[in-house]
Every structure is written in C-alpha cells, then in structure tokens.
Amino acid sequence: MTGAAETDYRRGAWHPEDHFIDGAWTPSIGTGRIDVVDPATGETWGSAPVAAPEDVEAAMRAARRAFDEGPWPRMAPSERAEVLRRFAAEIEARADALSATNTRENGSPVAETAGAAANAAGILRYFAGLAGHLEREDVRPFPSGAGESVVRRDPLGVCALIAPWNFPINLVVIKLAPALLAGNTVVIKPASPTPLSIRHIVEAARAAGVPAGVVNLVTGNGRTGDAMVRHPLVDKVAFTGSTEVGRRIAAACGELLRPVTLELGGKSAAILLDDVDLDAFAGVFVRSCMRNSGQTCYISTRILAPRSRYEEIVARITEVVAGAPQGDPFDPATVFGPVANRAQYESVLAHLASAREEGARFATGGDPLPGPGLFIAPTVLADVAPGMRVAREEIFGPVVTIQPYRTVDEAVGIANSTPFGLGGIVFSADEERAFGIAERVDSGSVGVNFFASNHAAPFGGRHDSGLGVEYGVEGLEQYVSFKSIHRAARR
Length: 491
Ligand code: NAD
Fold this sequence. Notes:
By secondary structure, the protein is an alpha/beta fold. It folds into 2 domains: 281 residues, Aldehyde Dehydrogenase, Chain A, domain 1 (3-Layer(aba) Sandwich), CATH 3.40.605; 186 residues, Aldehyde Dehydrogenase, Chain A, domain 2, CATH 3.40.309. It is built from 18 helices and 20 strands. The strands form 5 sheets. Strands 14-15-16-13-12-17-18 form a 7-stranded mixed sheet, sandwiched between helices. Strands 9-8-7-10-11-19 form a 6-stranded mixed sheet, with helices on both faces. A 3-stranded antiparallel sheet has the order 5-6-20, with no helix packed on it. The termini are far apart. It binds nicotinamide-adenine-dinucleotide (NAD).
C-alpha cells in the first residue's frame, strides 16, 4: 500500500495520494485533500485525496468492466466464498493496524477497535457460509399445476457503498461481504473524517486474491458520494449515515429507479420495567446505551424509568457513568473517548445547551473538558420531558436522557413516539414479560436485557431509520436480482 510513511499506525503520519482502482493504488486526479485529525489530541496526522469526477469515473468503469467481463460474477458462489474466507484471514492479520488507524481517526477506544478485525472477519465468514443459499436448486411449482419456476438470484452489478465515520470498518464490511458473495463489484467511499482505516481492508482484499476491479476505493466528501449515487454505471446504492443525507439519496435513487439500502439514524429507548434487576442492568448499561462514546446508531439513549423506582434508577445510572474512565482512547481501560470530530462535538454541545435552557436536570457531566482533545464529560440528563429537543433528536454523543413513566402502556407510547425505529431494549427480571413488551416496540430490532447485532439476523430501521436490512440471509438478498424462469413441469 502506498503512502504509509511508517508502519506504526499509532504514531506515524499517513498522507496517501491515491485511490484503489482496478486492482492498483492509482494516483488521484483530484488535488483537494481532506485532513484526518486525531480527536483525542487535535493533531492532524493524516490526509487523503478528494476524488475528482475523473477518479470516480475511473473507479466506476473498472467496477463495470470487472462485472461485465471479469471472472468474479461468473465464479460459483462457493468459489467466491473461498476467497471471502481468505479475505477474512488477511483482515485478521492486519488487526493491529486496523485498530490503531481506526482509533486515531475517530477516537473510538481500543477496547472497541481491538475487536474490529475479528468482527469484520466474522461477517465475511458468515456470508461465505451462505453460498449454498445462492447455489441451491430453488424450484417452485405453479399453484395451478401449470408448470414450475426456477428462481435464480443473480448479482445486481456495480454497487456504490457509502459509509459514515462512527464504525468505519464494520459499516463497510457489512455491505462488502454480501455484495461480493452475490457476485457484484463495488466502489467504496468512506466518510471524510475516516478515510484511512478502510485502506487496510482493501489491501486485505487484494492479498486474498479478489480480482482486479471487483473492489475499488475512492475517498472524498459528500459531493463524491453524490456523484457515485447518480453515476450511470451504478446498479445499487448501499448507504449508512444520517437520515437527512439518506433522504437525499433515496430521492435520487427514486428518480433513477435504482435499488437502495439505507441504514439511518435512531433515537431508541430502553424501557426499564418495575422489576428490573439493576445490577444486571448496570453491567450492560454502557454497551447498550452509550457504546462508542454514544456514537452508535442503535443504542438506547432514552431511558424510560418507572416512577416507582425513578430516583433509584437515576442514581444507579449516574454512578455507572460517572465511574467509567474517560481519556486516552489508546488506554485499554478507557470506556469513553473523545467525540469523533469537530462538527459532531459542536452538535453535542448545542444539544446540551438546549437541555439546560429547557430545564433538564444534569445528574452528571454536561461540560466539555479542556482541549485540545474533543472530550465532553459523559452526561446523564434526568427529568427530561417528551417535548425537549434532547428527547426528540439523535444526539450521537456521550449523553443519555431519563424520562419517568407511570404505566407500561405509557412507556411503550413514549418509546414509539419518535419518527425513528431502529433499536430498543426492554429490561426486566422476567424475560417473558420483557419479550411481550419488546413485541410492541415499533422498530427493526429490540433486545431483551441486552442488545447486540447478530450476523445471522436481519438488522434495519423502520420509518426514518431506513429502508431494507443488513445481516442475515435477508441482508444477502439486498444484493441479488431475482429472476424466475418458467417452464413446463418435468415428468
Ligand atoms: P452523513 O450522512 O453525514 O455521511 C455519511 C456518508 O455519506 C459519508 O461518507 C458522507 O461523505 C456521505 N455523503 C454526504 N452527503 C452525501 C450525498 N449528498 N450523497 C451521497 N453521499 C453523501 O453521516 P455521518 O455523520 O457520517 O454518520 C452519522 C450518522 O450515521 C448518524 O445519524 C447515525 O445514526 C447514522 N448511522 C446509522 C447506522 C445504521 O445502521 N442505521 C449505523 C451507523 C451510523
């Protein structure tokens, strides 16, 4: 890989001048740069090129050629699965570089990023295991008896994969793995604050023997993403990011009648029932409600607490949050790192100012720490009323809100009162009771006493949280074009 000035990704500078196009690192025609700033220190330690329209064009043409003429879509799914398994091993071999680059790009603590390679490899192996789903004979008789249909799952073609900055590795790989298994070719664009860690993934793909042109990478900004979404050679768009940008992409894809998957924002609720086991809850609280310094789409940042145990719950959450170490994201003990970038930092501070104006109680935190790092003290806002801005908008920072409720029906009503529908958790000592309430939460995924994404189960948002799903066999089917071949029944 070019441009890695040092192999120590924890300390070195990294200013690559190329995109990955048609199997090779290719000098950027675009001369603009995006800076990569370590949010823990304020140091600008890297940069990446902003693709010119000609760079996007070259990447799209390479992907198109690889799809129309190359071996990848013509290989059997089980042959592609073998390549994905090698790809997984190559990613694991780069675990340290991936973790360090990710942590320096967006401040995610190493306690989080140390698992990024294993998680990415697990996703690739899971989808490799689905090759049989694409290969099996899927023959369906006409209900009338008139004949039968052979159902094929063809690849779609060239897929544009556009990712946000909060999990720059996982949120690309969860698109890449099913797209590749199904036989598509791709052009990836990471978010502008985090353009570097994904280069290790692309390099791993090359080392694994993914043919030239199948995986391409361009770096840039929103304009680059827009050019990809509208590019005439693209057959499918897969996007994770904000609801606002997702709407724009959906509008463009609607006009073009282009398939699109959108994984967008959330404002999920944790409903604590009156029999909640607070010790068990405290043990999973940060992972469930404030993971990655609150910068995780599905976490349940609105805590709904029964009035009968309200002050006890506020006190327990405050104790957990105030006691969790915040600081150097390279320290394995760190739980809360900095906010990932300046724009997000300003946005979180604006939300905290609104909470102050609107009369929320600051149980702990609420203020920025002295710079140069972008640290905001992890914050618990109690006595939050449904109309407050912090109760309605995604904050995407180290902040949770606590709202009281009287009846379970009221709690479910509050949980379902936002335009989003991504995650949610119900906490109770009685799992069956919690399961019954989880069934009433209007979202794509709900946990009972914990939350985690399961590679084998569909994950996606309802309403303003998105369209389509990732993970599971259903996630794979977002990258296929169904084709039914009808014929007379065989005797
Ligand atoms: P963002 O929408 O600002 O940017 C996401 C990506 O889209 C970036 O690569 C950006 O360059 C690109 N982009 C910007 N404008 C574009 C345009 N007009 N056309 C095409 N591409 C464009 O989001 P972000 O700030 O990077 O990420 C945070 C958001 O992502 C949060 O709202 C969070 O909830 C959401 N998110 C959702 C999920 C999920 O699975 N549902 C997961 C993680 C993050």
